[in-house]
Amino acid sequence: xxxxxxxxxxxxxxxxxxxxxxxxxxxxxxxxxxxxxxxxxxxxxxxxxxxxxxxxxxxxxxxxxxxxxxxxxxxxxxxxxxxxxxxxxxxxxxxxxxxxxxxxxxxxxxxxxxxxxxxxxxxxxxxxxxxxxxxxxxxxxxxxxxxxxxxxxxxxxxxxxxxxxxxxxxxxxxxxxxxxxxxxxxxxxxxxxxxxxxxxxxxxxxxxxxxxxxxxxxxx
Length: 220
Fold this sequence. Notes:
By secondary structure, the chain is an alpha/beta fold. It has helices spanning 32-41, 63-80, 97-112, 131-145, 175-202, 215-218; strands spanning 16-20, 26-31, 45-50, 57-61, 86-91, 116-122, 149-158, 161-168. Among the domains are: 9-69, Ubiquitin-like (UB roll) (Roll), CATH 3.10.20; 86-168, Translation Initiation Factor IF3 (2-Layer Sandwich), CATH 3.30.110. The strands form 2 sheets. The protein has a 4-stranded mixed sheet. Strands 5-6-8-7 form a 4-stranded mixed sheet, covered by helices on one side.
C-alpha cells in the first residue's frame, strides 16, 4: 500500500473511530465494526482521514470518485501553472540600430510568453573605460520595451558585463473585471452597513425612569 494513501475499509484496525457522514455531518464515536456496516449499507467506503486523532477520524465517501476528482484537480493545477524562465538578449557597446531592432523583437516575444529577460552587454578590451556608453544603450532599450515589460533590476556593471533584468508587464484588467470588482466592493459595504443596523436595532432601548412620588406629595 502507498504510504501516502489513507487506510480504507478493512485496512482500518482501530477498535473505534469518530465518524463523519458523506454530507459532513458528525455521527459520533462508534466501534469500527459499526462504521464499516454503515459504509456497506450506504454503498460507500470508510476512509481514515485523520489517523493521529484519538480516536481516528473516518469519513464515508466514494473513494474511487474522490481519487479521480483529486487527480483531475491536480492535472488542472499543473496545466495552469507556468514555469517562468530567464531568457537572455545580448547587446554590445557598438551595436547598430538594425541589431537593436532584432534584439528588441526577441525580448518582446520572451516577455509576451511570460518569461523574464536578462539584457547583457560585454565590454571588450578598452570598451570598459566607456561604460557610460553601455548605460545609455541599456536605458534606450528599457524605454523601448516599457510597453511590454518592466525593469526589475537596473543596469549594473559586474566585471566586464553590464546586466539588466526585465520582467513581463502585469496584465491590465478589462473594463468588465474592474466593474465586477466595484460591484463586489459595493455589495460588501452594504452588507456591513446592514449588519451594523441590525445590531444597533437589536440592542434594548433605555426605558424612561418612573417618577416616584414622595409621601409629602400624597398628603393633602
